[in-house]
Specification:
Layout lengths: L7 E4 L3 H11 L3 E3 L8 E6 L2 E7 L15 E4 L3 H11 L4 E4 L6 E6 L5 E6 L6
Parallel strand pairs: 1-4, 5-8
Antiparallel strand pairs: 2-3, 3-4, 6-7, 7-8
Protein name: VOC family protein
Organism: Ramlibacter pallidus
InterPro entries: Glyas_Bleomycin-R_OHBP_Dase (IPR029068), Glyas_Fos-R_dOase_dom (IPR004360), VOC_core (IPR037523)
Amino acid sequence: MIHGMNHFTVIAEDLDRTLAFYTGLLGLEQGPRPDLGFPGAWLYAEGCAILHVYSDRPVPPQRAGVIDHMAFSARDLKTVKARFDAQGVKYDLRRQKGAGTWQLFCTDPNGAKVELDFDPSETD
């Protein structure tokens, strides 16, 4: 029945700061969003809407809830690391045993854990 992941949704305390994180730092692009009757944004990767951000309700006290994190496939580890370092964003970079996949973990401005996965052939 399921054939793919449609999108994640993040509740933003500060919409502008959250959009800056996902667009300016992670490189997603803001795109068309239907009028849903509340403020927010759709963020796209390579033409596909993958992240819905809205800011009309309070962030739950238990930030992560039952979902631990969201993971994205990414490219150009060196550039991403340089961008994070330049903006002073903390991250944890790990190399997955066996597969060799590079995994960069960070937290968005709202406390959501984000994982960026890079091909094993990339260098740090």
